[in-house]
Design a protein that fits this description.
- The protein is α+β, with helices and mostly antiparallel strands.
- The protein contains 13 helices and 20 strands.
Length: about 375
């Protein structure tokens, strides 16, 4: 991960940063780490690719083939002009390693410099993104595995229920092969029209849905921990949905004891509208394959539990800067084989976005793909509100 940098057209480096994150002897500190139970299952896989928790922070493993680098660069750009909060709430300068950024990232970084004529639009875009992504605490390594350190979004919840929603008409990354595109299309064939799919749902209230039915269908699993029991619905749940019943996932998530929590759903709706407003003002990134993670409090003994929610964008391994040379190749897609059924299906997201009626004019460069998904998610949630 931190070997010789790959060659790019132009390279940018910051001389004052260390060459690599601090490496820790995982064998001597193993007891300090806890494998996290992530809603979509990544934290349960064990090994080097498991999500870890240490000192109240989430350690997310960096992926291979450039995906981890892209995600780390995203967080470093978004938080570079701010300061991360220490656990004691004191502010401190971020201390992340920064070797050679890709040429596209260097271009974005240059746009943030005080002398740049693009600074206003770039700075506004970055500031708007910062409002809705987890706080970043720099890079970290355990043995040979590299991680990024992020705030634990569930830290202040007693019994968190979570829903991971993959947003956008298109959910494959940069330069995806036809095999990869076909695999993504099979996960939820209606995603281009619906605008989102459920990557995972974890509900702490065992009486909120008809669990026997979902268990019989093989899509629901019940888990128990030291704190509480919860039911998990994974990717198979989404595959069985049609565009007409896609709101079922939201009904499940917002229900306790068979009662749909209207007040909590309205708070989340308002947070999504705020997120949508921010996305409409940023044209720095397109967030392919990113998710919206919604967390709500399920412990009804907690004071103010109905309004205790978190709504954040996560997963930026396929984020694409609009100044990247790859952007014009990916938006719209070019060079696909029109004789391939998969490639024809892969074009549908462009057709959907091209025909979509926007309530307000959309600025050039704005991430229409993610924005469309957020619009559709808000619409589906509002159909459940009375």
């Amino acid at each position: 991960m931190h070997g010789e940098p790959r060659e790019v057209e132009e390279q940018w480096s910051a001389p004052s940063y260390p060459e690599s994150p601090p490496r820790k002897d995982s064998s001597s500190e193993e007891e300090d780490y806890r494998i996290l139970d992530i809603v979509c299952g990544h934290g349960l896989c064990g090994g080097n690719q498991a999500f870890l928790e240490k000192n109240g922070l989430v350690l997310k493993p960096l992926q291979s083939r450039g995906r981890g680098r892209r995600e780390r660069e995203f967080y470093e750009l978004v938080w570079r002009e701010s300061s991360a909060l220490k656990k004691d709430d004191e502010t401190a300068e971020l201390d992340w390693p920064r070797q050679s950024w890709s040429s596209s990232m260097a271009s974005v970084d240059a746009g943030l410099s005080p002398e740049s004529s693009k600074r206003d639009s770039c700075a506004v875009g970055v500031e708007e993104l910062r409002k809705h992504v987890p706080r970043y605490y720099g890079a970290y390594s355990v043995g040979e595995q590299d991680y990024i350190q992020l705030e634990n979004l569930t830290e202040h919840f007693s019994k968190p229920s979570l829903i991971d929603i993959k947003v956008g008409a298109r959910t494959w990354g940069i330069g995806a092969s036809e095999k990869k595109v076909c695999n993504q299309l099979r996960k939820f064939p209606h995603q281009a029209e619906v605008g989102f799919r459920y990557a995972g749902i974890k509900v702490c209230s065992l009486n909120s849905i008809k669990y026997d039915y979902f268990a019989e269908e093989g899509v629901a699993q019940v888990f128990s921990s030291e704190e509480h029991a919860y039911t998990s619905l994974g990717k198979e749940f989404t595959k069985g949905l049609s565009p007409e019943d896609v709101s079922t996932g939201l009904e499940i998530f917002f229900s306790d004891g068979g009662v749909f929590q209207q007040k909590t759903a309205r708070v989340v709706r308002d947070r999504l509208c705020s997120l949508r407003s921010s996305l409409a003002m940023q044209n720095v990134y397109w967030l392919f394959c990113s998710s919206i993670l919604i967390i709500r409090e399920s412990d009804q003994e907690e004071e103010g539990w109905e309004e205790k929610v978190s709504v954040k964008i996560i997963d930026f391994a396929h984020s694409l800067p609009t100044v990247s040379p790859a952007f014009k190749d990916e938006v719209p897609i070019s060079g696909t084989d029109e004789s391939s059924c998969c490639s024809i299906e892969a074009q549908r997201w462009l057709e959907v976005l091209g025909n979509y009626h926007w309530d307000e004019p959309v600025v050039d460069g704005v991430d229409k793909n993610f924005l469309f998904g957020v619009d559709r998610l808000i619409h589906q949630l509002e159909t459940l509100l009375v």
